[in-house]
Amino acid sequence: MSGRRRAPDVPADVTLIYEVQLLNVRNAPDPKRLSVSDCIRICKQKRERGNYHFQREDYQSAVKSYNLALDILNISSELNPSAQEAEELQEDGLKCLNNLAATQLKLDLHEEVIASSNAVLQLDPNNVKALFRKGKLLSEQGDYEEAMETLKRALKLEPSTKAIHAELSKLVKKKTDQTAPLKQKNNMCQNTGEKPVTFLPAPSKSGLDVPWKWFFGAVAVVIGSVVTSIVLAARG
Length: 236
What we know:
The chain has helices at about 35-55, 60-75, 85-105, 110-125, 130-140, 145-155, 160-190, 215-235. By secondary structure, the chain is an all-alpha fold. Pfam families: TPR_19 (PF14559).
């Protein structure tokens, strides 16, 4: 070897034109005829595709991919999976729902984020990601009582997470700013002899724990919100 480099076959900064020939067309398999193992495999593929779109900030495509994965999970509920398969389906479902919520958050679809987070918490009441997202958005919407309850649950599960501490500190400040005028008014009422006005906290709307067999009902609700997500995102 003389050490000299060969000139490249394709020069730099040139336009390449490709010709593509379609060799074969296959219809997608009928989802209702899939086995449970096929459902698990396809669900993982769709979820990973959603992750691919999310990393490239193509959030609308990510929502569609997670939606397809949830559709497959919904179909698998009719196939009587074994205990091991049911556990794997539930794990994949939790990942899809959490990823969907993260994507909806990027699209500023706050109501849809809460719906997806609630679906996660129906399956896994101690899911910290879902608790944090839900608590943060409830705080932004002014539902301070439920936001405080939700974030405290998250903090109890992960007491060293700085993001939860920071969000709780912001929430405490919001509540203080909200109640300060009321306290001032009550003090004025006491000075004038008037009866102060009291307000009862809003009733809690936290979801109830449900067994795995009810998972697909929650998925169906979320899929409905996903359609709304796609429409609203397209309008945006």
